[in-house]
Amino acid sequence: MNEITEYQLVETCLQEKMDNDTTRCNLCLWRCKIAHGQRGFCQAHVNRNGTLYNLSYGILSSIDIDPIEDKPVKHYRPGTRVMSVGSYGCSFRCGGCHNLDISWGVEALDDLAKGESTEVWVTPQSLIDTALRAGVQGIAFTYSEPAVWLEYVIDVSKLAHKAGLYTVYVSNSYITDEALELAAPYIDVLCSDIKSMRDDFYQDICRPAKVKQVLHSIKKAHELGIHVETRTNIIPGKNDNPDEYYEIACWVRDNLGADSPWHITRFFPAYKLSHLPSTPESSLLEAEKAAKRAGLKNIYVYNDKGCDCAEENKPIEAYLNSSAEELHQIKKCAASCCGDEGVLLKKYEINETDKNEGSKL
Ligand code: SF4
Fold this sequence. Notes:
Blueprint: E1 10-11, E2 15-17, E3 23-25, E4 33-34, E5 45-48, E6 51-54, E7 59-60, E8 62-67, E9 81-86, H1 100-103, H2 106-114, E10 120-121, H3 124-134, E11 138-141, H4 150-162, E12 166-171, H5 177-183, E13 189-193, H6 199-206, H7 211-223, E14 227-234, H8 242-255, E15 262-266, H9 281-294, E16 299-302, H10 324-327, H11 346-350
Parallel strand pairs: 9-11, 11-12, 12-13, 13-14, 14-15, 15-16
Antiparallel strand pairs: 1-6, 2-3, 3-4, 5-6, 7-10, 8-9
The structure holds iron/sulfur cluster (SF4).
């Protein structure tokens, strides 16, 4: 692909044409079937006349720099620092999400779709230059599910490797085999949630994954040679069952190895789970005990932090070598393929107030 120098919709890298200009997105396991003018569940991919495009290529919701241990990743290049970046759009709708504005990013993606966005847009090369200037050793894709802007993740990761930087992919692992295989050569580390061993947890809290789908992707990443570390956020009354801790630990032991790190994190109330208490320390210690019983050798317990959130980040402008005026110019698609319609979507063409979540057929 030619270098992209202005904001534009970029063709979704895994798409499959179907009848009547309907196209299937094969990035994540939603495998959304999307008709002209509609967007997928994540809201970041749109069908224009039978071709799918990613709306969020190069659009950054947040940047931060911290130790790789904060991702959390403990067994890959310890002591180094990463530049973490995220965009808008996610394949899950987690009831306890701390990052709603930037992970789901419905408003930001709507503005992009309407051609009214002033979000920050950064070319892959500028992001690498920014990382090198900051003196970090790696780039992490995090804050929302990286699969929904995989086109950008891959382009940045290729350049990162050329520049001697490693790459970290922080994920829910609700990703297709095809997408994982496409990204694997450029991803060094996967830090994946194993949120539960119960399908009903995934259905109730995150929609729509099944445990076996998530575990399959994690194992596949490991088989593809990616360094994998897993994490479970213990939520009171939801997944704080000692049998479940043991099951997760046994799965990690049997599929990733007894040495594979398992991170046990504390839940802090947010969004639809605001009524729940924070995880008591006793549950975290019980999970650790179960993991030791299962034979895991590297168990990390976090009492102070619930997730790799972006709530306290500095403004993006603080990291980039451009003026705020330049960064926040209106983002209109620079490509001409949509004609005079620009990127306006059916959602707005038909009914401005239609707030349907997702457009999965
Ligand atoms: S949710 Fe988004 S990334 Fe996933 S299949 Fe649907 S359009 Fe593609």
